[in-house]
Amino acid sequence: MNHVADIAAGRLTSDEYAANFSDVHPPLDRRRALIEASRCYFCHDAPCIEACPTGIDIPTFITKIASDNVRGSAVSILTENIMGGACARVCPVEILCQEACVRNTQESKPVQIGALQRYATDHLFDKGVQPFQRADLSGKTVAVVGGGPAGLACAHRLSMLGHDVVVYEARGKAGGLNEYGIAAYKLPDSFAQKEVDFILSLGGISVETGKSLGEDITLSQLRQGHDAVFLGFGLAGVNALGCEGEDLDGVANAVDYIADLRQATDLGALNVGRRVVVIGGGNTAIDIAVQSKRLGAEDVTLVYRRGAEHMSATGHEQEFAQTNGVKIKHWAQPKRLIGQDGKVKEVEFEYTQLDDNGRLMGTGDTFTVLADMVFKAIGQTFVPAPLRNGSAEMLELTNSGRIAVNEDRQTSLADVWAGGDCVPGDDLTVAAVQDGKLAAHAIDRALRG
Amino acid sequence: MADLRCNIAGVTSPNPFWLASAPPTDKEYNVVRAFKAGWGGVVWKTLGEDPPVVNVSSRYGAVNYNGQRVAGFNNIELITDRPLDVNLREIKQVKRDWPDRAMVVSLMVPCEEEAWAKILPLVEETGADGVELNFGCPHGMSERGMGSAVGQVPEYVEMVTRWCKKHTRMPVFVKLTPNVTNVLVPARAAKAGGADAVSLINTINSIVTVDLDVMAPTPTVNGKGAHGGYCGPAVKPIALNMVAEIARDPECGGIPISGIGGISNWRDAAEFMALGSGSVQVCTAAMHYGFKIVDDMIDGLNNWMDDKGYATLDDFRGAAVPNVCNWKDLDMNYEIVAQIDQQSCIKCGLCHIACEDTSHQAISAAKDNGARRYEVIDEECVGCNLCMHVCPVDGCITMRRIDNGKPYMTWTEDPRNPANMEAAE
Predict the structure, then answer these.
(1) How far is A285 from chain B (nearest CA, A)?
(2) What is the DSSP string of B330-369?
(3) Do B396 and B369 meet the contact criterion of CB atoms below 8 Å apart?
(4) Using CB atoms within 10 A as the burial measure, which of A45, A96, A310, B7 is most buried?
(5) How far is it, in rounded angstroms, from Cα A30 to Cα A120?
(6) For B365, nearest residue in chain A (alpha carbons)
(7) Are the Cβ atoms of A43 and B393 closer than 8 angstroms?
């Protein structure tokens, strides 16, 4: 009998990998899209529009689907949200537009806005159409730091408004978390790169990869070389557990593993444990837990220090993890990671509860979970180092340690704007796109005086 | 259990649900299937003179609305394309096998007395219960001087009806075309000619859709299309009005009516009956879903009649006719205003925008911290019902009567009527 190691690659057949990492929500065909579109009431002052961070005119785009004006529908979406294709796939619609749908009140079944948005945007992408044009050129150039949703949204809108844009991207590809961070089955078939190509096909945007702020380029240089700067470089740091055994083999940051998975050409070459423990309660925790299971892990246990209602992963995501065979344990925090021969073997958790002041405390009771791999997913942090000039901050940060911006996403420096995860607010693709769009319009106003 | 037996102009059937003269009644095979399913009667698809007509390929067009297929339907099919003797033989056999079901035979021959005199005895010989004169078919046959070409000329209607009454003892139903400005004129002509009943409506001249690629109407026959006859749920309101006009016309003298036009279920049928129809005829719904639909028609009508305490069809037939009046006889003092049930309101805002953009600005829109609230401004509301109709929640918007203590006052009596002003001067 073949012995399979506790951490091993190739646990599944290639067909199983393909099935496990294909589109988690297959697209609507025309017939189903028309039926779903017919459910939209075309509300006045529609609550769904208000619930969309980018303010997409949802009833209008759905009406256009219903009349088979699918191209018009896609343009309505992309006008407000150039990453409408990715957002249709990754947005937590259950807490945004679909939560606001009036059909919930009536029948607890919202219009499937996300699926319809995908139907419309896919149609345009499949035709390879770039429906936007650039305005008369202004002769101005803008530097965008970070090729993620915030940066690309800003770049596309700036280019439309007539400005030339250079995007500086630290990694090898643009796309940001859509390329490196989102669960693979949410954006299969290289969708993130297709979307980047679509955005760049407008023209006027050049992307310089491998350019990291603070290492390869500095903010001062960018300010000198461009008429304005937009910072959208996200969160570079990962929170540590701060407990014994964190450096054992088999312990990894979820975001690093997901980035590897997203770039893997052969999923069968990825090592995954027989028993996987995930620590954290956000979407990254859900994504790594489910992907571990889908890579063939036998037991995946997600442990969160508070209750289900406190998890930043939506109820929908939690349920998705559970239906994928992930066991979720609430009210426990890691106490130590126990190793053998330098490899993690189990994790000791302490039960938690809230004290009389509502603060989290350990109860003193413990339990252990066997683990061959442990993924840390307890949040990412903003690393301000690239913005320092010596020891002095070049621009103002908030108390929470992110870049302070005003309503226009302008920083404390008059010619520098910022958006996406590196500024306060929801860490969502759709919120990042809105930041980039708003900043682009503010930059345009500033440059045109 | 209510008694659904129907008697119209002496033609009896176990229930009032008949299949209209159309493809479902073109031959023995279909009609036997219909009778097995429970249909009370049929009007056999229109017979004509031999040689039989020839039909084209591609015959039906449909209007699909918001996901509902065949909300409206049209056809360019002509009368039966089978030899007369085949049809007559089958009619005879079916009537013999199903003696309790109504067997009415639709006829269309040229506008010459001898043509009618020749075909009527042949039909009578089958044992059929009655004939229906097809004066309604608006396409194809009308180009040959038959169908609606007859129905649109009241003198012809009367003349042919009279011939038929002269040449047969069978009850004569005259099927009326809606493609006229006033259906009362041909209806009165049928009555004058001695018709025992009228059937209406036949189909409406129509082009259901234009194929924007072929640039031709549908159904498209090798790149071209001709107008067809429109039917199905979409035409029901037109049919109901025409039935009501005849039912309340003193000159028509209470002539029995076989109601036709978009009847898809028992409720539609009950509405036609409330406006005076005896039997009702169905076609599109059967062509869409098959003969089985008659089960709910019978069952549903029965249950509704039991609920209402109606023992027979006559107990409610025509009950709504006295309440169909002219506009000038409506009560000018009747006042209602819309009322929104805030508990069931889902905040779609459709009532507000409909009133704001297109009516009387009588529904306010307020937003408090994201919570929407729509309220009727009683002083501005004219009681038009628009909001109630656009509201997607049943029962959320209702119309509340304002008790103003004023008596029933018609426009004729209204002092605001210019005629009355002049009189007062």
Answers:
(1) 32
(2) S-TT--EEEEE-TTT-----HHHHHHHHHS---EEEEEET
(3) no
(4) A96
(5) 10
(6) A45
(7) no
> B154-167 and B184-193 are packed helices; what angle lies between their axes, rounded to 10 degrees?
30
CA dist., res. B412 & res. B404, Å (int): 20
**Is A392 in a helix, a strand, or coil?**
strand
Q: Do A44 and B348 touch (CB under 8 A)?
A: yes
CB contact under 8 A, B66 and A103: no
Q: Return d(Cα B412, Cα B263) in angstroms, integer.
A: 36
What is the number of CB-based contacts under 8 A between chain A and chain B? 38
Is residue A123 classed as helix, strand or coil in its secondary structure? Answer: helix
Cβ atoms of B106 and B175 within 8 Å: the answer is yes
Q: Residues 6 or more apart from B37 whose CB is under 8 A from it?
A: B291, B292, B294, B295
Chain B residues touching residue A105 (CB < 8 angstroms): 346-347
Question: In this structure, how many other beta carbons lie within 10 angstroms of the beta carbon of residue B60?
Answer: 17
> Which residue type does A340 have?
Q
Between B67, B348, B372, which is nearest A41 by CB?
B348
Which residues share a beta bridge with A165?
Answer: A142, A205
Closest Cα in chain B, distance from residue A59 (Å): 11
Contact across the interface for A105 and B349, Cβ inside 8 Å: no
- pTM for the model stands at 0.89
Nearest beta carbon to residue B365 from set A35, A41, A45: A45
| Binary contact (B350, A42; C-beta < 8 A) | yes
Residues in chain A closer than 8 A to B393 (CB atoms): 106
| B84 part of contact set with chain A, CB < 8 Å | no
ipTM of the complex: 0.85
Residue with tokens 């001709």: B226
Q: Tell me if residue A78 falls in helix, strand or coil.
A: helix
Residue of B nearest to A66 (CA): B66
**Are residues A187 and A90 in contact, defined by beta-carbon separation less than 8 angstroms?**
yes
Burial class (CB in 10 A: 0-12, 13-18, 19+), B35: buried
Candidates B55, B318, B21, B12; CA nearest to B174 is: B21
Q: What is the full DSSP assignment across B124-163? A: HTTT-SEEEEE----SSGGGGT-THHHHT-HHHHHHHHHH
Q: Is B311 on the interface with A (CB under 8 A)?
A: no
String of DSSP letters for B208-254: -EEETTTTEEES-BTTB---EEEESGGGHHHHHHHHHHHHT-GGGTT
Q: Token digits for B194?
A: 């001695």
Each of the 425 residues of chain B gets a pLDDT tens digit; together they read 899 999 999 999 999 999 999 999 999 999 999 999 999 999 999 999 999 999 999 999 999 988 789 999 999 999 999 999 999 999 999 999 999 999 999 999 999 999 999 999 999 999 999 999 999 888 888 888 888 899 999 999 999 999 999 999 999 999 999 999 999 999 999 999 999 999 999 999 999 999 999 999 999 999 999 999 999 999 999 999 999 999 999 999 999 999 999 999 999 999 999 999 999 999 999 999 999 999 999 999 999 999 999 999 999 999 999 999 999 999 999 999 999 999 999 999 999 999 999 999 999 999 988 899 999 999 999 999 999 999 999 999 999 999 999 999 999 999 999 999 876 66
Q: Of A38, A66, A106, which has the smallest distance from its Cβ to B346's Cβ?
A: A106
Task: Give the residue from A35, A106, A111 with the most B CB atoms within 10 Å of its CB, the best one to mutate.
Answer: A106
Q: Choosing among A43, A60, A116, which should be mutated to test the B contact, i.e. which has the most B CBs within 10 A? A: A43
Rounded CA separation A216/B131 (Å) = 95
> Known catalytic residues of B?
137
Full DSSP string of A195-215: HHHHHHTTSSEEEEET--BTT
Q: Which chain B residue's Cα is nearest to A39? A: B66
**Which residue of B67, B347, B353 is in closest CB contact with A47?**
B347
Task: Give the one of A35, A45, A103 whose C-beta lies nearest to B372's C-beta.
Answer: A45
